[in-house]
Amino acid sequence: MLTALEWEAIQLSLRISFWAVFISLPFGVGIAWVLGRYNFPGKSFLDAFVNAPLVIPPVALGYILLVLFGRTGLFGRVLEDWLGVSLVFTWEGASLASAIVSFPLLVRSIRISVENLDQGLEKAARTLGANPIRTFFTISLPLIWPGMLAGITLAFARCVGEFGATITFASNIPGETRTLPLALYTVIEMPGGESAALRLMIFSVVLAFIALFLSEFLARRSRKKFRSN
Amino acid sequence: MLTALEWEAIQLSLRISFWAVFISLPFGVGIAWVLGRYNFPGKSFLDAFVNAPLVIPPVALGYILLVLFGRTGLFGRVLEDWLGVSLVFTWEGASLASAIVSFPLLVRSIRISVENLDQGLEKAARTLGANPIRTFFTISLPLIWPGMLAGITLAFARCVGEFGATITFASNIPGETRTLPLALYTVIEMPGGESAALRLMIFSVVLAFIALFLSEFLARRSRKKFRSN
Amino acid sequence: DNLHAENKGHENKGNLVVFAAISMINALENLAEQFSRSEGIKVVTVFASSSRLAKQIQFGAPAHVFISANVKWMDSLLDKGLIEKNSLVKVVSNKLVLIKPFHELDYAENHENNIIEFLPDKKIIYLDSETNIFEMLGEKRLAIGNPDYVPAGMYALEALKKLGLWHEVANKIAPMPNVRSVLSVVERGEAPIGIVYNSDAKTSNKIKVIGEISHNDHQNIIYPGAVTSDAPPIAHKFLKYLLGYESQAIFSKNGFIICSNNSSEVLELKC
Amino acid sequence: MINLEVEARTRLGSFNLDAEFHALGGEVTILFGRSGAGKTTVMESIAGLRNLSDGKISLGDRVLFDSCAGVNLKPERRGIGYVFQDARLFPHLTVRENLLYGRRRLTLQPYKGDFNKIIDLLDIASILSRFPSTLSGGEMQRVAIGRAFLSNPDVLLMDEPLVSLDDLRKDEILKYISQLKDIVSIPIIYVTHSVDEVLKLADKVILMSDGNVQASGTPNQVMGRPDLEPFVIDGAGGTVVDTVVDFQDKSHSLTNLAFPGGNLLVPRIDASRGTHIRVRIRSRDVALATVRPESISVLNMLGVKIVSISPPRGAVVDVVLDAKVPLRAQITQKSALELNLNEGMEVFALIKTVAVEGQEHV
Amino acid sequence: MINLEVEARTRLGSFNLDAEFHALGGEVTILFGRSGAGKTTVMESIAGLRNLSDGKISLGDRVLFDSCAGVNLKPERRGIGYVFQDARLFPHLTVRENLLYGRRRLTLQPYKGDFNKIIDLLDIASILSRFPSTLSGGEMQRVAIGRAFLSNPDVLLMDEPLVSLDDLRKDEILKYISQLKDIVSIPIIYVTHSVDEVLKLADKVILMSDGNVQASGTPNQVMGRPDLEPFVIDGAGGTVVDTVVDFQDKSHSLTNLAFPGGNLLVPRIDASRGTHIRVRIRSRDVALATVRPESISVLNMLGVKIVSISPPRGAVVDVVLDAKVPLRAQITQKSALELNLNEGMEVFALIKTVAVEGQEHV
Ligand SMILES: Nc1ncnc2c1ncn2[C@@H]1O[C@H](COP(=O)(O)OP(=O)(O)OP(=O)(O)O)[C@@H](O)[C@H]1O
Ligand SMILES: Nc1ncnc2c1ncn2[C@@H]1O[C@H](COP(=O)(O)OP(=O)(O)OP(=O)(O)O)[C@@H](O)[C@H]1O
Ligand SMILES: [Mg+2]
Ligand SMILES: [Mg+2]
């Protein structure tokens, strides 16, 4: 049913999106927490910085990444010299691009949940002897979990659909960075590529659908528990 | 300070983004409400449909819009025959593209707030004689307002950054559809366009910054009111 | 596989990596496959817009062969010493054509300015200063590649200016980000006519070519190819292979124009 | 006079509600019962906030819910004022806005509550412009009560409204509720665990247990039943006697109340002659004597006849007395034996004036 | 024996807290005061949930907070068990998980509470696996109490913990708290509006008003003060007498308690001879007689001397009696005049056995 190329693109999309979300999740939660809970000078700047990838067109973002993480770039050189790692033109680079593009979505969803969190419950946990760490993991985290799940899904979907930054920064290398959207871009240039493009588009949507379905399922399970009929 | 072209792009971006968010807001609230409150068969499909624009690369989305809203398209024909309106190559079309691309972000933020809403308060309002409409506008809406604000900001920022669907569906016509990202893309693809690109990128970020700042200000005002120190 | 586990940064030792303009995808996929079969080496083809590929090579992309859709981007790499000057060749050439939607006939019935009048029985016209593009467009727009950065658009702009038609259409163009988009808006009738490469026109069966633009009216459209500075010898062989008779025939089938100086001699690029 | 008829059946997890009762307009009907008995569930059913599987609820000739006829009026059409067990103030509105939220309701009967009067009663004038998050527990509770009062309801549902309030304020609000029911003559359903509140307020008591109505009737009927033992603390029960003001003893700040069985002296009640007053006499406050004691500080000594003596429960026996109206005394078994009390005997019931609580009642 | 010393000053909007008091280990210290007096604010300050602008709080030799020394222990380091005014159960955890949440705490003193015992006491065995959203108001309250008990705290803060509970269950829990304080000898700070609870539990009462400590001392000292009138309902105050079990009258289910002023008969208390029992005698339950009445159902007649008679407040006067221990009677002015009561007079104090409430006390 699936051609080898399609299968390869799907796998790549999944792998790249998974790692993008997985790695950025702790940062996302941290920043959402700081933004949702505290007021401090420079908060607006942090907020703007986190959200910048939304307003900058992905292609431009890709160029910025190329400049920063390319072999001659600021970070790229450090990574290469110190760790022997190069991100440009690798799937890890594609993950980085996806992570940056989807980061604002992740943060915003979690932040809304953090803002809605009842601090009274955290206080209650503290009086029961839980330190801030335990309080966070046993009380706060489970209670913001629905928002986190929403953020994860949103970010994952955005990663699966990511094109501009990826093709610019990580190029369109088959088996390495040719994700579903890049494959779609490639086949559409071929005569009669529409049907192949349609197939790829459907795969994208199905992937997103599965992610949404999974998240809805998990969210419903956790909601059902603690909400009365 | 600003060149005429830059100023034009900024104005266009603002106009297109404003209308995109403004028009999609009622639908966004409605769908977020339905998804956040009710369980019904087909909910997952509605959810997937709403979120589909996230996974479909914007360029492909632009193409789909062309198919649907073009002169020969399903909706395009209706619009043209009944209203004499054509969306392709117009700023209204760019608004449509932006609205569709940013819609999932709008819905998700509002939905998280809807799910966090304490239904006990709505019940209290009902016993005080408020019908569902009044209850919605005087109780539910003010309480989900922070989430709505977050959604509006996110969607607005996404619209300001929207590139792929717009350029494919609405072209890159100066004064009509050449928004900031399109202008940015144009100069970035020209050799030696880096400094012009940087300027435009900064404008985009500043725009988003202003939107974020405004929303943060409004949110803080409404939060301060009803949250104790 | 551990091939790329060892080769972070993708020198792709053993593989031949070809960066090529996306508009060549049909012909090149084909040729690369044949080449890899005959040489027993894997050819990895990477397609994107020339500008993007050029920038990527500039930032260290693991390309061995670069085939650009225009001379300018090749020049920029040449200046930076990232390609072997000696290896530079003209791979193919192309020409601009005027296209319209295939179903124009049915569609045109609804409109007064029926452009069919200009085109008795499918005869291909040559665009000249007499051509009434303004009338052909009616209320609509002329789809071309964005003359700011899409090579096809630049050539189209040059030709339209030279033919004195630009002032008629300057406010009526729909600058599209790539040739593919030009095709799609013309296919859908959003633009009644568009200007694309001949090779691009070949990829769509929903449009038809109604006119040609003489290459006298603009710079020569050349697809230069070259080998990057740290490429293996096989890269030269591949480039040479592209210039061979069979390869050129395949290019030709895909709408490209076979280069006149079909040899491995060095081009003088700034023609 | 609008009466409320309730017949409610539903199931929540393993809990089964099956309750049937009615509440008269102008009366306070107390829902009494241990925690988890289903009181809140009944209230929510009346308010239309909980779906019943089966039953019928009507208010006067308006049917609010009828599972057979498929009637299920929306909460806002039911004309209820509900003081929730948790205050449920609107967090984004000031106290004033919370209080006035329900006033927009169109009502059949003219608006009776007076904003300033209720503000004063509840002592919330100083917090009107604050937001709920800054209020203390009792302040929230009071605002919630005011909000329900001011919505001018056709039936008032109060779910433990006075829990966080001090006794003095409790008393004032209880008095106000007593007055209210007489003025607007709506049914008031009141949930409480306090025997004190039952005896002060109740015209009728519905005793719930495990989702069922265990007993219902006047406070005297319900609170005196020995089989309801587990619900009521020994001796906190008692009787309620309807009296009229006979004369005022201004010099001693006392009021003399007449009732069929004689007269009662109570701390001064500000009411004119002939006013109906309901007094509550706790059975543990009543002592018995076989001869009239002299030189004792007890002012009320009623000649009564012993109707019955209950079997001993622990140290105590309950003695039902006939003072033309029923009266109840709780004394030790030892006293009963020593005084040789028997059914039919004529004795004196001794009731300290300060132990009698009276309240105006129409 | 760990004592709690509190000195708390802070400002919330227009409300100023400035309270200073101490609470001894093994004693229940009641925070009493009208709604909005600042009780919850004090509790939160002790728990470390509210920042004080100034003050010092120490528990034994541990300093929890000291604005001068810059000490501010985190709430989890303070070793408190807090029953909040609102239950604050964790919505995503079952009742069992809520109850056990605090048990992970490492404590200096060995764990004393027993899970099953507390479950039984609170009667929550049947809801252990439910989530809080399905609980009734009283059930939530009980789980919150259990959660605090089970966390094995060094100081217990209880903010109106019993408000939604019926009297019987209240009584059981009150008894348990009384036992608890004796066993673990931690300080217990208890907020309530109920005079009843004050008299049953209190070793010490802190009366708060407008953010300040108005009065503090034993219940006798505080609840009897006439200047505290506005806080206490007439006659609900009273005295607490420390007694020891003298003998058991099994046939009448009575217990005879000895105290310096004589003996008291009370309903049977299950305790052996010599056990210390604290009894509470409400002043309105005490009648006075100048000659010993005969043939009356009142079993306790104590010969006492009148120490003072207050000026009349409305109908009543407060009479302070000397029965070797202080005792208090509330009678009408009229009786006082008729019996010609004077300071120094020897009279009999009549106290119905059923009106006396006794509780074991170490
Ligand atoms: N979803 C549910 N699943 C199982 N049991 C439930 C559910 N909802 C409520 N109950 C049970 O129904 C019973 C009645 O609850 P309700 O709130 O009416 O009690 P109540 O009489 O108001 O008690 P309280 O005085 O404690 O407020 C309780 O025992 C409660 O645990
Ligand atoms: N942020 C604030 N701004 C202004 N006043 C406040 C704020 N927070 C609390 N208060 C006031 O502080 C006072 C003390 O509140 P606290 O909760 O301690 O009272 P309380 O004694 O517990 O009362 P209750 O018995 O009603 O629970 C209240 O009058 C309250 O209105
Ligand atoms: Mg209840
Ligand atoms: Mg409080």
Descriptive notes:
The complex is a heteropentamer, with two copies of chain A (229 residues), one copy of chain C (271 residues) and two copies of chain D (362 residues). Chain A has 229 residues and is an all-alpha fold. Helix content of chain A is 79%, strand content 0%. Chain A has ten helices and no strands. In chain A, helix 1 packs parallel to helix 5 and helix 2 crosses helix 5 (91-116). The longest helix of chain A has 34 residues, at 4-37. Chain C is of the alpha/beta class. Chain C contains twelve helices and eleven strands. In chain C, strand 1 (15-21), helix 2 (25-39) and strand 2 (42-48) form a beta-alpha-beta unit. In chain C, helix 2 runs antiparallel to helix 12 (245-253). Chain D folds into two domains: 4-230, 3-Layer(aba) Sandwich (Rossmann fold), CATH 3.40.50.300; 239-361, OB fold (Dihydrolipoamide Acetyltransferase, E2P), CATH 2.40.50. The longest helix of chain D is centred in the middle third of the chain and has 18 residues, at 167-184. Chains D and E meet through helix 4, helix 5, strand 16, strand 19 and helix 8 of D and helix 4, helix 5, strand 16, strand 19 and helix 8 of E. One adenosine-5'-triphosphate sits between chains D (12-15, 33, 35-41, 85) and E (134-139, 164). One magnesium ion binds next to helix 1 of chain E.
Class per helix and strand makeup of chain C: alpha/beta
What are the segments of chain C in which pLDDT stays under 50 over at least 5 consecutive residues?
A: 1-12, 106-121, 262-271
Q: What pattern of helices and strands is seen along the backbone of chain C?
A: HEHEHEHEEHEHEHHEHEHEEHH
Tally of helical segments of chain C? 12
- Physical arrangement of strands within the biggest beta sheet of chain C: 6-10-5-9-7-8
Largest interface: D-E, 78 and 78 residues
* Average predicted local confidence, pLDDT of chain C: 79
**Uncertain segments of chain A of ≥5 residues (pLDDT<50)?**
none
Number of helices of chain A: 10
Strand content of chain A: under 5%
State the share of residues found in helices of chain C, binned by percent. Answer: 25-40%
Quaternary structure type: heteropentamer
- Shape by Cα distribution of chain C: elongated
Q: Total strand count of chain A, please? A: 0
How does the helix and strand content of chain A classify structurally?
mainly alpha
| Percent of residues in β-strands of chain C | 15-25%
H and E string of chain A: HHHHHHHHHH
- Net shape of chain A: globular
User: What ligands can be seen in this structure?
Assistant: adenosine-5'-triphosphate, magnesium ion
Q: Mind telling me the C-alpha Rg of chain A? A: 20 Å
